[in-house]
Design goal:
The chain is an alpha/beta fold. The protein has 10 helices and 14 strands. It has 2 domains: 112 residues, NAD(P)-binding Rossmann-like Domain (Rossmann fold, 3-Layer(aba) Sandwich), CATH 3.40.50; 167 residues, 2-Layer Sandwich (Dihydrodipicolinate Reductase, domain 2), CATH 3.30.360.10. The strands form 2 sheets. The protein has an 8-stranded mixed sheet with strand order 13-12-11-7-10-9-8-14. Helix 1 crosses helix 9, helix 4 runs parallel beside helix 5 and helix 6 crosses helix 8. It is globular. The N and C termini lie far apart (50 Å).
Length: 341
């Protein structure tokens, strides 16, 4: 199937924060016209990019665009997405889809009833290193996965803005680790149990500025995933990576290594190259992501991430928060978010 043409499309960008710049640059590279609306910052954002136009209201934006791209704070995703669905517009929404699985499910059901689509923007599924790891595991290149480790660290955003309010951000797990919760499920399969700890703990719904969360997932396959997410001191270098150990080999990657990806296969492992990039000199994963999602909205093949994946990631994050609150392992077969055992 030929790649759908995106030129001539108009996207409505809702939100004008930091991530909006990455989305604007990607849409412009794809030749898509961009209208932006935000409670604050829309005019300033438009002034930085030739051709970027401001819509004075959500209704004006909905009337002028083919679909919307939501990059507002997490706690607003539900309200804005429901408005877009009511207007009959397809939606691309930054992760997390919402802050609860129930609300995410509500959005998916509303979109289905309205005959529109909603795609969560889980951009890590478009990073070449993670794509290569997923493909290698699916192809059996390292045998059966036994243990996987994922980590992600960043300079804490919690010293400013809304991030410290766990009710608005979901804390470090929902805001940062949600990427790796999605990756663990994508690469290692469905999850049967979740155990989580955080140090230091949140107090009265307020996250520490500097905090680390550790989550252990047991998968249906028997594989175990260990995840760590850290909001570090100001100036902490952003780093991410993984180590995936199987019965026939090991896949390792850290973002601060020049090689981009390391491969070790035992002598009896499947032969042949894994076709893993040796550097990250590729187009922006955000551009790759938005091309694929917009292409799907224009009649192309289904993208690699669907509403159900966004719901599942939020569900796992909720389970991790429940485990932290109770000190117990959460059984995903019986877990009801918000109801402590």
């Amino acid at each position: 199937m030929a790649e759908p043409q995106l030129t001539g499309l108009t996207v409505g960008l809702i939100g004008a924060g930091n991530i909006a710049h990455v989305h604007v640059e990607s849409w412009r590279a794809l030749g898509v016209r961009v209208l932006v609306h935000s409670h604050a910052g829309a005019a300033e954002l438009a002034a930085q990019y030739d051709g970027l136009e401001v819509a004075d209201s959500l209704d004006a934006l909905f009337a002028a665009v083919d679909f919307v791209d939501i990059v507002t704070p997490s706690a607003t995703h539900k309200e804005v997405t429901l408005a877009a669905i009511k207007a009959g517009r397809d939606v691309i929404c930054e992760k997390p889809l919402t802050l609860t699985a129930a609300e995410s499910r509500e959005l998916a059901d509303a979109a289905a009833a309205a005959g529109v689509r909603i795609y969560p923007a889980h951009v890590v599924r478009f990073f070449p290193e993670y794509v290569a790891a997923h493909e290698a595991v699916v192809a059996g290149k390292i045998g059966e996965v036994a243990v996987a480790r994922f980590f992600r660290q960043a300079s804490s955003p919690a010293a400013r803005g809304w991030y410290r309010d766990v009710a608005r951000s979901g804390g470090v797990i929902m805001d940062l680790m949600v990427h790796d919760l999605d990756q663990a499920r994508w690469i290692c399969g469905e999850v049967t149990s979740v155990y989580a700890v955080q140090s230091p703990p949140s107090v009265d719904g307020i996250s520490p500025v500097n905090v680390a969360a550790h989550v252990t997932l047991t998968h249906e396959s028997g594989a175990i995933s260990h995840l760590r997410a850290t909001w570090g001191a100001e100036g902490t270098r952003f780093r991410t990576g993984f180590s995936i150990a199987g019965s026939a080999g090991l896949l390792e990657y850290t973002s601060d290594k020049d090689t981009g990806f390391d491969e070790e296969l035992q002598d009896n492992a499947a032969t042949g190259d894994l076709l893993i990039p040796s550097s990250t000199l590729f187009e922006s994963p955000y551009l790759t992501q938005l091309r694929e999602l917009a292409g799907a909205l224009r009649g192309g093949p289904e993208p690699r991430v669907l509403a159900e994946d966004g719901i599942a990631a939020v569900y796992l994050a909720e389970a991790a928060r429940e485990s932290m609150a109770t000190g117990r392992t959460v059984d995903m077969n019986t877990f009801s978010p918000g109801v402590s055992a």
